[in-house]
Design a protein that fits this description.
It is built from 3 helices and 8 strands; from the N terminus they run E-E-H-E-E-H-H-E-E-E-E.
């Protein structure tokens, strides 16, 4: 069995954002040389997410509006977590909804994604560097 471990770093210019990272993950699968296996993509920060969905701009905007409705950033005083001096309780909740990681099968050397499926990095407390773990295993 072979494996490849890589870290991707992201720094979004805004507090919230969604980045399609499918091409970067595909390049790492190719680099790994693995033909049959699994690819784990994991957000390593508790205010960021990795998820799979369609890369359609309306949907991305809908996610942003929906998440802000579920866990609005302001007023920051509404969250006990923010009593610690933080202002990102909403980002923790948004991450919880969107998820921490995805696992995608590798078949014949490529990500085995369904139609329209893309891998995204979701940022909910941006403007600083955060990393994503990519772990590819197989043969």
């Amino acid at each position: 069995m072979k494996s490849l471990t890589e870290y991707l770093w992201f720094k979004t210019p805004n507090r919230r954002g969604f980045l399609n990272i499918t091409n970067q993950i595909e390049a790492l699968v190719k680099k790994s040389g693995i033909q049959e296996g699994l690819c784990l993509v994991n957000a390593m920060h508790i205010t960021a997410s990795v998820y799979i969905n369609d890369d359609e701009q309306g949907l991305l905007k809908d996610y942003d509006v929906w998440l802000e409705h579920l866990a609005p950033h302001a007023p920051i005083s509404q969250y006990k977590h923010n009593d610690t001096g933080e202002d990102n309780a909403d980002a923790h909740m948004k991450r919880q909804v969107m998820g921490r990681e995805v696992v995608v099968a590798i078949t014949k050397g490529v990500l085995d994604l369904g139609p329209w499926e893309q891998i995204f990095y979701g940022e909910f407390d941006g403007r600083r560097k955060k990393r994503v773990l990519v772990k590819i295993i197989g043969g």
